[in-house]
Amino acid sequence: GAGVSQSPRYKVAKRGQDVALRCDPISGHVSLFWYQQALGQGPEFLTYFQNEAQLDKSGLPSDRFFAERPEGSVSTLKIQRTQQEDSAVYLCASSLGQGGGNTIYFGEGSWLTVV
Amino acid sequence: GQNIDQPTEMTATEGAIVQINCTYQTSGFNGLFWYQQHAGEAPTFLSYNVLDGLEEKGRFSSFLSRSKGYSYLLLKELQMKDSASYLCAVRDPGTGFQKLVFGTGTRLLVSP
Fold it and tell me: Cβ atoms within 10 A of the Cβ of A37, count?
């Protein structure tokens, strides 16, 4: 597609419910990132994929968070047993290459509210 | 780790010029990015600096001084649509310069 696509755009989950957030990166982009953004803050890194390999998951806040990209294109971020502190915008981003000046393009995010 | 500092909020008038500063401390450097983010929308790429100096792109310019750990984004001929958050970000050396580390963003309000 033309840009990074994320779904759902908005999700309200009851505390304790599992959620899955989907990201379709720009076609052909090797690198894929997940970020979490709280209101009024900059995006915080969660995890990074190079093709299907998850090379960095140091930003995942707990073992309730899990991400995958099994075929090196679409990625899913799963949050188990959601808590209120998980309420945030989850941004997916992709880039054609790695590092340097390779522009990282962001999707519009999935807005998660845990009630 | 990385430390990025930028003002929380700025106000300016339509037609004016505004400069948004960003200072960073990082153990290695592989480029600095500026993004614009309107409320409820995706961050969109504005500029990338890896060498010292000024990069001009239309109404927007970005400056970098690596020795001072300092960058600024200059917005000229401000328009109402420039009201947005402006995010400064650097590549994190700890992961082979793959991920971006962001500042908290500067919320710019342009008034008539």
Answer: 21
